[in-house]
Design brief:
The structure is a single chain. The chain has 273 residues and is α/β, with parallel strands linked by helices. Helix content is 56%, strand content 9%. The chain has helices at residues 5-11, 18-28, 32-35, 40-47, 51-60, 66-75, 88-106, 109-121, 133-145, 157-165, 183-195, 233-252, 254-269, and strands spanning 125-129, 151-153, 172-177, 198-203, 216-219. The protein has a five-stranded parallel beta sheet with strand order 2-1-3-4-5, with helices on both faces. Helix 11 (183-195) links the parallel strand 3 (172-177) and strand 4. The chain is elongated, with a radius of gyration of 21 Å. The termini are far apart.
């Protein structure tokens, strides 16, 4: 089997449908450096085909699905570490600055306030994420714990699923997913929706399978390819939105939050030599 994505496409060029050719034309007419960032929903919309058509095209190429297709696109481009610039420090700083500025422009203050209302009124709050997005979920737990707001965080998907099954309308669930297409998070969102649990979803893509379940969507700009999954650039926008939420919570609960911040600070100081 040919190794490159375009080599695979060349092998099937005599056995393509009209919709296959629409996908191929879209690939040929656009910069691969941009295409590898697209979710399956975004790619299908841009190519003007159905998601099911795109998945069949991936299978025709001998791939397991869109994730492998996107991986092969990413492999054909330069990563943030192998770009043309020799000043990697500046390149990464510039990418982070752009991500933060773009995320700021997407912030909907009304949704921030609605999310804060849900969090402050919830009986139980869970913050969950899969893979690297789990780091953001953990950071939200840590941030809110200092305000005296008890937030639960679980890494293991098995226990995430168990915990979700016990939630109800009085509880809140905050899900983190850069792609918005993570199967584990989608399954959890589906279950939470059935139970009437309030869903705050922090995700990168405006259109994604996960975003469809959100009561309150909060968008970030943190696009990354499958090869950049461990990059801080892919996390910094999520952390920024967490800080914005935390600031809004503090504004609403200033007296109690300040008291708890002081108490937690003292408790940590006592552990220092």
């Amino acid at each position: 089997m040919a190794e490159g994505i375009y080599d695979r496409i060349a092998l099937i060029k005599n056995n393509t449908t009209k919709q296959d050719r629409a996908i191929i034309n879209f690939l040929n007419d656009n910069n691969v450096n941009n295409l590898s960032y697209l979710s399956i929903t975004e790619f299908a919309n841009c190519a003007k085909v159905a998601e099911s058509t795109l998945l069949r095209f991936c299978k025709k190429l001998g791939l397991k699905g869109y994730s492998e297709f996107r991986m092969m696109l990413a492999q054909s481009m330069s990563s943030e570490y192998t770009g043309n610039s020799d000043d990697f420090a500046f390149t990464i700083l510039s990418s982070m600055t752009t991500a933060l500025q773009s995320t700021y422009e997407l912030i909907n203050q009304e949704n921030i306030e609605k999310a804060v209302t849900i969090l402050l009124n919830a009986k139980r709050i869970y913050c969950l994420g899969s893979g690297n997005s789990g780091i953001a979920a953990l950071e939200m737990r840590n941030k809110f714990l200092r305000f005296g707001i008890h937030v639960y965080h679980l890494n293991d998907n098995h226990f995430q699923t168990i915990a979700t099954s016990t939630l109800g309308p009085d509880d809140a669930l905050t899900l983190f997913s850069v792609s918005g297409s993570t199967k584990d998070m989608i399954e959890i969102a589906q279950k939470a929706k059935q139970l009437g649990t309030k869903l705050i979803i922090i995700t990168n893509y405006l259109k994604s399978p996960l975003g469809a379940y959100a009561d309150i969507p909060l968008y970030v700009v943190a696009k990354n390819t499958p090869l950049d999954g461990g990059s801080l650039i892919a996390k910094v926008s999520q952390l920024y939105v967490i800080d914005v939420l935390a600031a809004a919570v503090y504004k609403r609960t200033k007296d109690s939050s300040q008291r708890n911040l002081e108490l937690t600070a003292i408790s940590v100081f006592e552990k220092e030599i």
